[in-house]
Design brief:
Strand order of the largest sheet: 8-7-6-5-9
Order of helices and strands: HEHHEHEEHHHHEEEEEEHEEHEH
Protein name: Transcriptional regulator
Radius of gyration: 25 Å
Largest sheet: 5 strands, antiparallel
Number of domains: 4
Shape: globular
Pfam family, one: WCX
Mean pLDDT: 80
């Protein structure tokens, strides 16, 4: 899966702290420690080499020994203070208090006693250290769904009971199923019930605002997550179809917010993403939303089908007398175009 900005930022900060404590680490060893490829380590070093403190003169930048790097060893010569732990200011502490309270509100009912104790203890310590500023923060998560459905789901989570629900999916298909609820999660501005679906025989996420009815059953929950519940809305699998999309730079959020497998920057400022799709209805909605920024879609059948969906939508809004004119504007239904050059930009390190 492609590296996202938050993940890379954490790795960059961790790399500086690690190299500050371990002078002279082989590129391969550093890659193994952070779980990335040696090539990615070199890219990270390039990024850090151009980072530093305000002013950004040579003495303000993080620096490495170029001769060591040429021999395959990363040696940090100037960390600019990034190797030391930072003290939280009042604003940062209040943000953490708000985040922990939101976490308690969202998943507190689904945590086991030990996890709940850790969350509560951490919040109490941080609240005490923050003082009066923490008293100004009150977090209550708004869930866009039938209040009765939400209340029943939370009751089932507290009691560890199976539920029966009536659900409408993204394709407007109605189904009824028994599920073992795990937690209520929030993502992409929506709230979901994460559960084990006995009909599908696997983990599923149900949008709460699409649950028409939810009823608590007498049976206890029998399937529990093998790991801590993951609030990710979608986790791609090899059996899901792969789709490649060329986009303009304005749609960069796609690479940051969606679980893409690969991201490639193009020379014209656009980029190419490859992602796996389990729902064609979701893909159609995504491409229609991105239409002004979509340059090419592969496979071509996807582009043609989405173009036809856009044409049908336009026709549904067009009730005028010129509806059937042959020269009326319609979406381009052409297949995918050839992508731009895929060569990665040259490295800056050689110029130093």
């Amino acid at each position: 899966m492609a590296d996202r900005t938050p993940e890379r930022l954490l790795r960059l900060l961790g790399m500086v702290a690690y190299l500050d404590r371990h002078p002279g680490v082989a590129v391969e060893d550093l890659a193994a420690h952070f779980g990335v490829s040696p090539g990615q380590v070199l890219k990270d070093v390039d990024t850090l080499w151009m980072s530093g403190t305000p002013g950004y003169w040579p003495d303000d930048l993080i620096d490495f020994d170029a001769a060591s790097l040429e021999s395959g060893v990363v040696r940090l010569t100037q960390s600019r203070g990034m190797g030391r732990a930072l003290r939280l200011g009042t604003r940062e502490a209040v943000v953490l208090v708000a985040a922990l309270r939101a976490l308690r509100e969202a998943v507190g009912d689904a945590l086991d006693p030990v996890e709940r104790e850790v969350l509560t203890g951490t919040l109490d310590v941080l609240t005490a250290a923050t003082g009066e500023a923490a008293a100004t923060v009150d977090v209550q998560l708004a869930v866009e769904a039938d209040p009765q459905v939400v209340a029943t789901a939370r009751s089932a989570l507290r009691d560890g009971r199976r539920v029966h629900l009536r659900y409408v999916d993204a394709s407007d298909a109605l189904s009824e199923r028994d599920v073992d609820p795990w937690q209520i999660v929030t993502g992409d501005e929506r709230s979901y019930l994460q559960a084990w679906c006995h009909s599908a025989g696997g983990e599923r996420l149900f949008r709460l605002d699409r649950i028409l009815d939810l009823r608590v059953l007498d049976e206890p929950v029998t399937r529990r997550p093998a790991r801590a519940p993951d609030p990710t809305v979608f986790r791609p699998a090899p059996e899901h179809a792969a789709v490649t999309i060329d986009l303009s730079g304005r749609a960069r959020w796609v690479a940051e917010q969606l679980p893409v497998e690969e991201t490639l920057d193009l020379d014209d400022g656009g980029f190419r993403v490859t992602l796996r799709v389990a729902s064609r209805a979701w893909l159609d909605q995504l491409l229609l939303r991105l239409a002004p920024d979509v340059r090419a879609v592969r496979p071509g059948s996807v582009a043609a089908e989405v173009a036809e969906a856009a044409r049908r939508a336009l026709l549904a809004y067009d009730d005028g007398p010129d509806r059937d004119r042959p020269d009326r504007d319609e979406p381009d239904a052409a297949g995918p175009r050839a992508g731009g050059p895929e060569d990665e930009a040259g490295r800056r390190r050689a110029a130093r």
